[in-house]
Amino acid sequence: MDIRYSHSNEINKVELRELFLSVDWESGKHPDELHQAILNSHSVVTAWDGEKLVGLVNALSDGVMTAYFHYMLVRPDYQNREIGKELMTAILGKYREYKTKVLISYEGAESFYRALGFRPEQGTVPLYISELV
How far apart are CA 46 and CA 88, in angstroms? Predict the structure, then answer.
């Protein structure tokens, strides 16, 4: 398996939709808005197996102090191959000098993010979210 990594947000809607639906993320059901969200991201790193999009991480940022990593996903049949680690390492490199790097982790992924240097913030509460409509 030869995975290629790209620092471009130029992804077609079909590939993007298929990636998000592969992990059952609701965003995949809104391909136009999802595509626009990726285009508007501060930065994006993608993983490709040939022409197939197999992973993605994006950052939203103020451009100076804070980066928020909103999406980080890898197709289930490509997980446990260090693709997620490569994606995160690539995007963290871009924000190395930033004071604050933030993400939300699902329960099963906490150890993955801890290995990358993330820690829960003292005094915080779990995520609050409104539903996609």
Answer: 10
Query: 96-102: long-range contacts at Cβ-Cβ below 8 A with a sequence spacing of 24 or more?
Result: 98/61, 98/64, 98/65, 98/66, 98/67, 99/65, 99/66, 100/65, 100/66, 100/67, 101/66, 101/67, 101/68, 101/69, 102/66, 102/67, 102/68, 102/69
Tokens of 16: 């993007």
8-state DSSP, 60: E
- C-beta neighbour count of 37 within 10 angstroms: 17
Going by their DSSP bridges, the two strands 52-61 and 66-74 should be labelled as antiparallel
| Predicted model pTM | 0.90
Tokens matching residue 114? 């801890």
Q: Which residue has the tokens 């197709």?
A: 75
Contact 47, 68 (CB under 8 A): no
Query: Tens digits of per-residue pLDDT, 7-32?
Result: 999 999 999 999 999 999 999 999 99
Helix H or strand E encompassing 94: helix 83-94
